[in-house]
Amino acid sequence: MNVAVPRRIKFFVGGGVAAFVLAVVTVAAVLIFNARQLALADGASGAVRFVSSAEAALNRSLLGVDVLLASMDEILDLSAVRAEWLDPEVTSQRLRSSARQSLMVRYVALIDRQGRVLGSSDAAGAAVAVSLPLGFAESVFEQPLPMLMVSAPAVSFVSAERVLYLARQLRLADGTPLLAVAEMPVGSLADVLVQGMDIAGLQVTLERASGQVLLTMPRQEEALARVLAPPLAELDVTGPQWNARARLGGEQALVVYRPLMYQDLRIAASVPLHAALANWRAARDGIVLTALGFVVMIVVVGVVSLRYVDRMTQARLAIAQSKATLDEALESMVSGFVVLDSQLRLVQWNRRFEEIYPWLKGQLAPQVPFKELLKEKARHHLENASDEEQQRWVEQRVAVQRNPQGPHEQGLPDGRVIQVTERATPDGGLVITYHDVTELRQASAEIENLAFYDPLTGLPNRRLLMDRIQQSVAANARSGLHGALLFLDLDHFKTLNDTLGHEVGDLLLQQVAQRLKACVRTEDTVARLGGDEFVIMLKNLATNSEEAASLARRVGEKILRRLNMPYLLDAHKYHSTPSIGATLIGQDMQPPVDLLKQADIAMYQVKSQGRNSLCFFDPQMQIAINQRVQLEHDLQMAITGKQFELHYQPQQRLDGRIVGVEGLIRWRHPERGLVAPGAFISVAEESEIIVPIGHWVLRTACEQLAAWKGDPRCQHVQVSVNVSARQFRQHDFVARVVEVLRETGAPAHLLKLELTESLVLDDVDDTIAKMVQLKTKGVRFSVDDFGTGYSSLAYLTRLPLDQLKIDQSFVHNLGVKQTDDVIVQTIIGMARNLELDVIAEGVETAEQRDTLARYGCHYFQGYLLGRPMPLSEIEALLGNDLALLG
């Protein structure tokens, strides 16, 4: 019988198709429009980001040159000399040393108003030919205030390439103006910009306010020194728009610019409209094709839907007729069931019941007494039981059916567990359901196993171990026996995981677990705490503690022997050793956590003594740990209680004059008196306490430098302070040093930070970045204990260092070990080649000083010259030094 599809359904489907098509077209149009706007916005934001980063990079580069030129005053001490006092050769040598700080400039020179070169960093020295663009020098001299000026592009007579000249006015002691000039290739500035040019079609210009072009990217030599119109300032009237003209190509584009901090310079970026929309055009075509595909799909879905509705209409009557039967069958599909009448005879059953009890399938028939089925079940379930036992089981089941008490479970011979539920029917019959709960019971058993056992090794876990230790402690208190706890850790297990993988590591843990279980009795417990940590609890060893310890040691040594035997791990032959800590379980009701902690402490004692051994817990270990904790607490109190003080050890030149001091921390403890650094620095370095201590030392040294500025005895003295690795690696280290210098008013050029070789090479790029930032402020740097680490000379040449410090271990062996003499001579020669000062520490004898002087070292520090002393004593020593010079 065919039933026509109602007209209203056809109208509904057709209207839905039209609505969806309209929606797809609308969404596609909106997406295309939004994609275009997004492309333009991305182009604009990219140009803005580029200009911002380019502005910062150019400002940074120009500022570096400006600082370089301005520092000539301090380097050459121009404010204290006259022109005729300047030695061209010395001046050129100092300029060459200073010019190495900047890779941007080819050379720097000092020129007087008549154009004479007074000194140059060029190899030609004062004889170098400096040809400035016409009128550039006069424009710099006419500036009322000294400031950096940038020339128009010019062609270098030496290299025939485009260059810019950067100049700054300086004055001599008599007010005579001089010109500090740096020659910078245009390509140097281009290299600064090229890393950020990742925008398609981007055009970059460096212009003056008048429109004069100094630099273009891509390079267009013919555009240099050209005047572009309109000037960039006129673009501010409407803001950045896509209706501007590209500065180089002239096509429609977005032009974004930023002023630089020098001489009304501007960096401009032009993004052509056609380049910005290149990706959008491809996206537009994709959206159109996608929308077309959706339209076709919607139409197809509409047609299919009409056909589906037609088929559903045809099947509606058949579905309605079978719905009741289907619902009843669906409710009983998961579980098997039987329906019994009031006489407990079989009325109905389902296929699932036959699957659960396949041996009953041949006896299933309507009106069969259910007792007959129970008898067959008894023969199958209790096949080894007697007839009387089987009959008794059947009678019990019949009795239960007459008075159902709720669900109960039956175990089948094949291991399955069936939950049986019996419910009475209104007519006196019975409905019995059979549900297979085997997986549920297995899951419950697995959950219980996971709660108390390690899934990898099958050993008891921490939770079960702690419970058994608690029971053992209570049992020992009653019986008077002693037990023992062995805490075991595999040596270098992390190396195995890192080299061969965690799967191989798991194989080792499983084999270790098997060997441990083979080493102990059945009543003992072997547990895995996690990772490569195992605990062995030995019960009921002896009533005497010494005998119990002897037995426990015997078991521990047996474990050491077994675990030292080679392992075969997935075709890898591997040798592993354990470290074992032991403690006795006595009769004093110690908490399990404390016992475990004691064994753990003993195990770490083994680690510290070389591994692969057994050690019993000694109360002195706990005392040492408590003392360390107390020391950390005292250090915290020392910071807040102002218990630290700074002592100063003099640093002298060969002629005996004190040129600097090293600030060394001392701790004046309220109870223990003056504490040397060796007693607390290592603890502070292993914790975070070294950071505030280092900051205190830095601030105290800077405050002393500020106090010495007006004191003729001390105003020339440099102060060196050590910087720890933790302190230097703080992200705000540079900011904190600059802040301390600003707040205290200390002269930065007299502050010297001493870094260790390992600190410098830990993260070379980060180290160089921080050192360069502080060098621009005038801070000096020294490498402490040089020669004891593993320095890379390649990195050493990149570091902006001022001084190398020869370690005292080499100084002490001068004249004793020939190799140390060679090392010292090598360090001094290397420092001379790198134009670095070199100072030797630990100088205790005149022979050591004379040997170092003969090798070329002219700065010394050590007990021969003076021990670290309080402030009053070092100031008195400096006063004597000044009197001798006077």
Automatic annotation (TrEMBL):
Coiled coil: none annotated. Residues 628-882 form the EAL domain. GO terms for biological process: cellular response to nitric oxide. Residues 322-397 form the PAS domain. Keywords: Membrane, Transmembrane, Transmembrane helix. GO terms for molecular function: cyclic-guanylate-specific phosphodiesterase activity. It catalyses: 3',3'-c-di-GMP + H2O = 5'-phosphoguanylyl(3'->5')guanosine + H(+). InterPro entries: Biofilm_reg_signaling, EAL_dom, EAL_sf, GGDEF_dom, Nucleotide_cyclase, PAS, PAS-like_dom_sf, Rev_trsase/Diguanyl_cyclase. SMART domains: EAL, GGDEF, PAS. The chain crosses the membrane at residues 12-33, 287-309. Residues 481-619 form the GGDEF domain. This is Diguanylate cyclase/phosphodiesterase.
